[in-house]
Q: What sequence folds into this?
């Protein structure tokens, strides 16, 4: 355990470095922000002046060194388009995006795992088949289609829920439901398969034979063993969740981090993009470390060595 | 105690209901990244300035042609062909309480006229190249000095770029106190403040703008206590938000979606042909595009009437020349500069010896309404006369690329004179020349000078018609159509776009919008 964290942190740092370097180079190779931010009527002189004003007249390698030096000092720079610190730009949007992701994860686990267990237990019953069918639908339907269907029903026809923005709790319902549909469906299927494997194991029969209550057998002996592959999958899905949120934020006029990153990519707003990738990649990596930690909690055989 | 709570809650609910009637909620396609009327040329920012800022010379926006009115200046005289003297309105205050003085007027104009900050330099070149300085005569009198005789003084003092800002406020925003620096202007563009009827209470770049009524406004008070403008980029989301009662008014509705809204009795639609051209431009400086006959052929091969019928349901307007009704006496549709003639196009292609090399046509995916569809249709129209076109879909502005051949663009009317539309883009100092895709001949330059600076109307008209002949014979541009822009709102809102404004302006001042209480 003592070497686990430092080693993971080091690997984390290397991964981040590779990702950020790739983004740094790729964005600079594919375009100049001046073509997106100051599009019309700039002559060569004005163009050069603006590029210098943004500090983009330096050699890319110097920019790269400067970027890391500033990063170490906790300076993330100003967005080229908004001319405000990128931390402020992200700060404004981060809360609602994180809330959306957290709600989606919570809903996914709270609904997906129990349903997965139930469909495994009810594998002979018709109800189980119906749940599986519903899960299949949730898995198959593209999230933007589901989003529009929900909007048509709950906003357009029934006027129950707001469709645009993130100002009240009501605004969170449809985006969360849309995002969670896919992940709940995925989790139901993973949990069911893992449970089916476990249910046939000898130790389950032993547990029953010891006279433990069916619930205790199912949860303590069954689910706990089944959760290991489920947690792995969950960790991997975080990245998918982030990219799914980009689409959902657009449909629901969320003005969140996903929307910001797409705009920054299109406009080559380097500072915003670099900081955003750093944050998102960092979050995905942290979640994966947490998944590793969760292994140990679930399965005492796993030692974090 | 409990009863007290209930009462308080009931009172609050009551006041919330009245407060709601005082608020207007608007859903827009795009929100600006910063707001500074002086440096802004975009169709996004231009929606908002009229509510917060004011120019020296006012205008009756209900009329297409220019009818000047007192603005922040109560009167003016053209002292000589190069000097305009303006009397400032006394007792006008900025939204922070400071008085509007001659010092502020001088700064507002000179930050552009004598620009060192690159975003202002661009505006100096395309909008105010003829102004030299501002002289403060006394606390309430200023003189605007031009380099050459200036026939457009009133027009120029009415533009968005010359709206008045506060020297003291801007100077105090960033960096050293008392010293005006680029950083002050940057900070100002995030915390804009003017003398108009609505003050900016909150501005979140690219997301949201909240106005509150400025009670110290010198003129008729704003009709709404609060106006919230939120960015809702997706069209379907915008329409749903309106139908669902989340917003009261939405912008940018393409013609094919109008029927969806028109069936709803709780809503209504207002639209207007916008003083803006969607255009096709040709890079005259690309060696492959150098032959004027090739560019003429490409222009003649485009059937703009069909584009209008197919993409705009006939609601757009196909212009005969680069001219808008807003130009008043200078509106010259009779010039007939641009036409559709595929037979002539084929003849010219043959004469020019076009050997079938592909013409690259650049377009953004979704920047202009129907932009990509129009590009695809144009590709087919060119194919019909034997020209091979390759579409390049890229959100980047390629207007300055040496290898650009043709692309779509827009030529908005920035102020109501050919100078403010054609001139901004195609004058010898205009955007197209500075970006290098258009190189005016000496003859063109001479005719332009005559058009721009003649104080005689007939001479200006004659010169403009000569310019249009030069453009027809050696075309760098083809205006496709003036798009029809629609806005949808609750049936209880009385608002419509006004023909006297530049494109896309959301004018919510007194007399321009009302909410009918039922």
A:
């Amino acid at each position: 355990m003592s070497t686990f964290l430092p080693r993971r942190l080091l690997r984390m740092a290397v991964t981040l470095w590779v990702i950020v370097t790739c983004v740094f180079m790729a964005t600079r190779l594919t375009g100049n922000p001046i073509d997106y931010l100051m599009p019309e009527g700039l002559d060569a002189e004005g163009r050069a002046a603006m590029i210098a004003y943004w500090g983009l007249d330096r050699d890319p390698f110097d920019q790269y060194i400067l970027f890391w030096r500033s990063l170490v000092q906790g300076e993330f720079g100003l967005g080229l388009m908004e001319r405000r610190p990128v931390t402020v730009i992200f700060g404004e949007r981060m809360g609602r995006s994180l809330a959306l992701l957290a709600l989606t994860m919570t809903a996914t686990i709270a609904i997906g795992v129990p349903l997965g267990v139930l469909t495994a237990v009810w594998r002979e019953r018709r109800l189980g088949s119906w749940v599986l069918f519903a899960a299949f639908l949730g898995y198959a339907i593209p999230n933007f289609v589901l989003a529009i269907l929900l909007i048509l029903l709950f906003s357009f026809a029934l006027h129950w829920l707001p469709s645009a923005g993130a100002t009240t709790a009501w605004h969170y319902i449809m985006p969360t439901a849309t995002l969670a549909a896919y992940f709940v469906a995925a989790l139901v299927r993973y949990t069911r398969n893992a449970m089916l494997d476990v249910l046939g194991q000898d130790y389950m029969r032993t547990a029953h034979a010891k006279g433990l209550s069916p619930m205790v057998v199912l949860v303590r002996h069954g689910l706990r063993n089944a959760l290991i592959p489920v947690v792995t999958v969950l960790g991997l899905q975080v990245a998918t969740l982030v990219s799914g949120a980009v689409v959902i934020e657009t449909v629901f006029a969320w003005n969140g981090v996903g929307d910001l990153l797409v705009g920054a990519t299109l406009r080559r707003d380097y500072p915003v993009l670099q900081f955003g990738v750093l944050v998102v990649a960092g979050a995905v990596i942290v979640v994966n470390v947490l998944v590793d930690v969760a292994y140990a909690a679930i399965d005492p055989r796993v030692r974090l060595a | 105690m409990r009863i007290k709570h209930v009462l308080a809650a009931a009172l609050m609910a009551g006041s919330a209901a009245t407060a709601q009637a005082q608020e207007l909620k608007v859903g827009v396609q795009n929100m600006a990244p910063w707001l500074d009327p002086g440096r802004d040329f975009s169709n996004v920012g231009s929606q908002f300035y009229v509510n917060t800022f004011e120019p020296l010379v006012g205008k009756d926006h209900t009329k297409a042609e220019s009818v000047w009115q007192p603005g922040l200046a109560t009167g003016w005289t053209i002292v000589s062909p190069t000097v305009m003297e303006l009397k400032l309105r006394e007792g006008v205050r900025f939204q922070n309480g400071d008085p509007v003085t001659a010092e502020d007027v001088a700064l507002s104009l000179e930050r552009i006229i004598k620009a060192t900050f690159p975003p202002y330099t661009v505006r100096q070149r395309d909008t105010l190249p003829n102004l030299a300085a501002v002289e403060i005569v006394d606390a309430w009198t200023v003189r605007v000095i031009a380099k050459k005789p200036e026939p457009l003084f009133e027009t120029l003092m009415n533009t968005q770029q010359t709206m008045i800002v506060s020297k003291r406020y801007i100077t105090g925003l960033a960096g050293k106190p008392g010293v005006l620096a680029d950083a002050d202007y940057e900070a100002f563009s995030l915390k804009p403040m003017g003398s108009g009827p609505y003050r900016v209470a909150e501005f979140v770049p690219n997301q949201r703008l909240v106005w509150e009524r400025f009670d110290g406004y010198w003129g008729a008070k704003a009709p709404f206590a609060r106006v919230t403008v939120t960015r809702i980029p997706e069209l379907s989301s915008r329409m749903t938000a309106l139908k669902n009662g989340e917003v009261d008014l939405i912008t940018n509705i393409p013609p094919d979606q109008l029927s969806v809204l028109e069936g709803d009795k709780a809503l209504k639609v207002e639209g207007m042909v916008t003083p803006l051209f969607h255009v096709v431009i040709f890079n005259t400086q690309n060696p492959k595009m150098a032959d004027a006959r090739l560019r003429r052929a490409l222009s003649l091969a485009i059937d703009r009437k069909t584009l209008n019928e197919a993409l705009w349901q006939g609601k757009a307007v196909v212009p005969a020349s680069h001219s808008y009704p807003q130009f008043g006496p200078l509106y010259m549709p009779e010039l007939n500069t641009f036409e559709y003639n595929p037979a002539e196009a084929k003849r010219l292609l043959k004469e020019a010896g076009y050997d079938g090399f592909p013409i690259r046509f650049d377009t953004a995916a979704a920047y202009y309404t129907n932009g990509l569809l129009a590009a695809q249709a144009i590709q087919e129209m060119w194919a019909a006369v034997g020209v091979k076109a390759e579409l390049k879909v890229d959100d980047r502005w390629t207007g300055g690329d040496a290898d650009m051949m043709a692309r779509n663009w827009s030529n908005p009317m920035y102020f109501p004179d050919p100078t403010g539309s054609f001139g901004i883009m195609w004058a010898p100092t205009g955007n197209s020349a500075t970006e290098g895709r258009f190189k005016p001949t000496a003859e063109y330059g001479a005719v332009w000078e005559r058009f721009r600076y003649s104080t005689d109307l007939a001479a200006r008209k004659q010169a403009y018609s000569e310019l249009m002949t030069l453009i027809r014979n050696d075309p760098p541009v083809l205006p496709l159509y003036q798009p029809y822009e629609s806005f949808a709102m609750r049936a209880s809102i009385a608002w419509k776009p006004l023909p006297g404004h530049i494109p896309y302006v959301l004018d919510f001042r007194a007399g321009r919008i009302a909410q009918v209480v039922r």
